[in-house]
Amino acid sequence: MYCHSLKMAKAGRKYDIPCEDSPMGFVAIWPYELNLEDSVFQDLLVGLRAWATLSGIKYKLYTSKDDCETNENGL
User: Fold this and answer.
1) Run of H or E including 17
2) Which three-class secondary structure state does DSSP give residue 33?
3) Coil, strand or helix: which one is 34?
4) Closest C-alpha among 46, 22, 24 to residue 63
5) Rounded Cα distance, 71 and 66, in Å
6) CA–CA separation, 1 vs 11, rounded Å?
7) DSSP alpha helices (H): ranges in the chain?
8) Could you tell me which of 69, 49, 73, 72 has the C-alpha nearest to residue 60?
9) Is the pLDDT score of 11 beyond 90?
10) Which terminus of the chain has a lower count of CB atoms within 10 Å, N or C?
């Protein structure tokens, strides 16, 4: 698997979001590991979804250790 340096910034705050390519053809993204306050976390999720959609990237976006969402059926 390949790790990426996924960075986002908003309102002067910068975030380095853990993520990597999977052998199944999607990018796994773990923003929950940043332990952000909920409002900031929810805003970050919106940005990550938009980024993946605009980039045409298949993803699994982990909202917690055990929960994730994806933009592809069957992932």
Assistant:
1) strand 13-17
2) helix
3) helix
4) 46
5) 17
6) 32
7) 38-55
8) 69
9) no
10) N
What amino acid occupies position 38? D
- Over 80: is that where the pLDDT of 31 sits? yes
- Determine if the pTM surpasses 0.70: yes
Gap between the Cα atoms of 66 and 50, Å rounded: 22
Nearest C-alpha neighbor of 17 from the set 54, 53, 63, 58 = 63
- Per-residue CA distances from 26 to 22, 44, 47, 54 (Å): 6, 19, 18, 15
Residue 17, number of CB atoms within 10 A of its CB: 19
Interatomic CA distance for residues 32 and 30, integer angstroms: 6
pLDDT surpasses 80 at 7: yes
